[in-house]
Structure formats: C-alpha cells, structure tokens
Amino acid sequence: MSQTIPATAADTSGTIDLASGKFPSISVRDTRRGSTLAFLAWTLAVYDFILFGTLLPRISDSFGWSDTTALTANTLVAVGVFIVVILVGLIVDRVGRRRGMMITVGGAAASSFLTALSTGVASLVGFRALSGFGMAEQSVNSVYLNEVFALTEDKVIKKHRGFFYSLVQTGWPVGALLAAAFVAGIVGLFGEDSWRLSFIIATIPALLVLFLRKGIKETPQYRLNVYLKDLAKQGKHEEAAAIAERFGVQMPGGNYIGKIFSRRYARNTVLLCFAWIVNYFAITCTSLLGTTMLEEVKDISPGTTLLIVTLSNVVGALGYLVHGWLGDRYGRKPVIVVGWILAALFWTAFVFGPSTFTFTLVTYMGSLFFLLGPYAPLMFLQAECYDSTCRATGSSFVTAMGQPGTIIGSAILTALVASSISMGTAAFIVGAGGMVFSGLIMIAVKSPKILTH
C-alpha cells in the first residue's frame, strides 16, 4: 500500500502522508493568493448580477416588452439561477475545488457575453440562467477557503478565519457600487441603448480572473477524497476506511443530495434552507427593491435615493467585516441571530419613522449593516456544517434557496399591495418579518465545530 499521495503539477499543495493522518500545511502565499482571487471573482459575480437588474428596464425597452413580460423573464431567470447554483455544488464535490472555481468564473463570463447576444425572452432567460455560476461563487469560495484556512501556515488568518472570509464577502457591496458606476458611465458615453456593450465589456475582467485562477492549487482535503474513492473502486474498502478514520473524515461517494439530508446533516440543512428563504424576503425589500422603497415609502427624490443607496452600500461592506470579526470572537450563530433581529428594528424605524434625510439615511444604513453583515459568518458556518465529502453540495444547495426566497417574497409583497395595503406596511410585514423569523430559525441550527482539517 502506498504511504503517500504525491503532489502533481496541477495540485502542488504538498505530499499527503497517509501514515501520519495529518494533512500538509498550506503556505501563506497560496492562502493569500486564493483569498484575493476569491474576492475578485465574487466582486465580478455580483457586478454581473446587479448589472442585469439595473439594465433590465433598458433591455425591456429595446425588445418592446410589457411590464408583465419583463417580470416574467426576471422570474424565469431566478428559477434558472436556482437550478444552476445547486448543480454547481454537485459539480464541485465531484471535480474538485480548483476546477469548480474555474467553472464558476468561466460560467459567469459566458453569461455576460451571451446576454449581449440575446434576441428575445427565451434566449435571455437561458443565457442569464448561466449567471447562476457566478452566484454560486460565494458558496464555492466558502468551501475552498474553509479548507484552506484550516491548514494555512498564516497564524493570523487561521485565528481570525471568519474575519478574513468577511473581507471576501465585501465583494457584494463593492460589486454593486462598481455596477452602478459602470452603467452610469456607459450610458453617459454611448446612450441608453448601449446595454449590450455593457455586458460585453463585463466579460473582460472575468476572463482575466479566470486566467489568474489557473494557478490556484487543489485542497489536500479534496485530494484525499479522490484517493479514497479510487481505493473503494479497486475494492480496497477496508484500507480506505482505515485511512479515512486516521484522518478523521467520512468516506466519500454515494448520492450527494441524499447525504446532506442524511441523519447527520438533515437538521441543519432544512433549517438553513428555511432561514435563507425567509431572509431573502427581507433582502428583496431592502436591497433588491431598495430604490423603490426609498422613493415610494419615504418619498425621496431619485437623485437623493442614489446617494443614500451608495452610502449605505459602503456601510454594508463594513457590516461584513464587523460581523465576521464578531463571529470569530463570540460564535457565528449568535452573531447572525442578533444581527438580523437588530436589522428588523432598524427597518421598522425606517418604514414608520420620519422622512427626513438624516433619519432615512441612518435607518436604511442600519438595516443593510445588520441584514447583510451576518452573511459573512453565515457562509462560513454553513460550510463548517458539512464534511469535505459533501461540503460544496450542502453549501450550494442551501445558498440556492435565496432564489425561491426572492420569488416568494416578491409575490407576497405584490399581493399585499394589490389588496390595498400601503407599500410601507407591506414592506414592514415582508421585510421585518423576514428578518425576525430567519433570526429565530437560526437559533435552532446546531453550531458546527470549527474545522481543524
């Protein structure tokens, strides 16, 4: 029997000594390189996502769509993204973290480029569904960095891994701000019919990150999984089981979806799914429909609305860092719960408080700070909930639930307004309700152990 798993040209993260039961460490350089590229890839994924939402009215006008057609197209895109995000998790557990990260960036770049070639509803929905590769980026990042941070030689990152992951998560507000600035620049230079050019240009930085990611190394944890699978295929089940026990890991293989709903993981899988769905009711109100809420609920002018949204996204980035740091210090679950409850208080004040600029700015900032910030510890926590054999599947499956959450939340909001309930009251019910209930659901989630391998 071989006593080591040698490093290869593509996966030079060190030789794995099977007799020791210990994984090789990951260098400081490789840790920081992987983290930086994860941040850039997530920023570009968000950039593409926000770009589509911002340009949808221009796309609709160019095709001569009615509001109903545009809404239907957007809903179908959300369904497509949901399916793709789940598939990405399955792919990453099968082909590896390194290849998975290449696939997500490549898929996002393809989605941007193909969107520019859309000729109608069917092609647009199909091409935008591929943006699910980009949206899966955050779950793939959390899986990869969880495994890297557990073995890194960088003692500072290892001690404050949640905080350093939160730096990657700030790609959301950064990407949103870049998209807004980019659209303003392109429209200003080339006119409102230049939406196709916007998507074509967006592929360039994505392709650059794809090229740079070729240098990322596979994690030792996944390499061991591959080795154990090969032993099992050769009929060496006892040898594989002995090695798995020595390293303190589960035997890979089997149905990945079935595994995340097995007795060991079912509780957290179900609870996290519901938490994502319900919390995205709030995301829909505060973030995706933020400008609508500011203009219709608070009667803020479009120019002032843009200023408030921009400043609030900057504060939102700070929220990721603060909650990531607090999660390392006080535990990820309690920080998530408290954050979302506080977000509900700020959102309630936003809806029912005075419409002065200062009060609106502070309450909207507070809502985003405490709503978005907990996603930094949440993403890291849910990756810790699963072992390396199904970690990508579990994290991606749970993350995908944000898409049905958006659809359901939008439907509830629309139904409430259609029944003659004011936009403000509807925003309170859906937004604050989603924040509170998702926080309460998280209380029942079983806190996982911090990864040591």
UniProtKB/TrEMBL annotation:
Residues 34-450 form the Major facilitator superfamily (MFS) profile domain. The keyword S-adenosyl-L-methionine does not apply. GO terms for molecular function: carboxylic acid transmembrane transporter activity. It is found in: Cell membrane. Pfam families: Sugar_tr. It is a multi-pass membrane protein. PROSITE patterns: MFS (PS50850), SUGAR_TRANSPORT_1 (PS00216). Signal peptide: none annotated. InterPro entries: MFS_dom, MFS_sugar_transport-like, MFS_trans_sf, Sugar_transporter_CS. It comes from the Bacteria. The chain crosses the membrane at residues 37-59, 71-92, 163-189, 195-213, 269-294, 300-322, 334-353, 359-381, 393-418, 424-445. Keywords: Membrane, Transmembrane, Transmembrane helix. The keyword Zinc does not apply. GO terms for cellular component: plasma membrane. Its main location: membrane. This is Putative MFS permease.
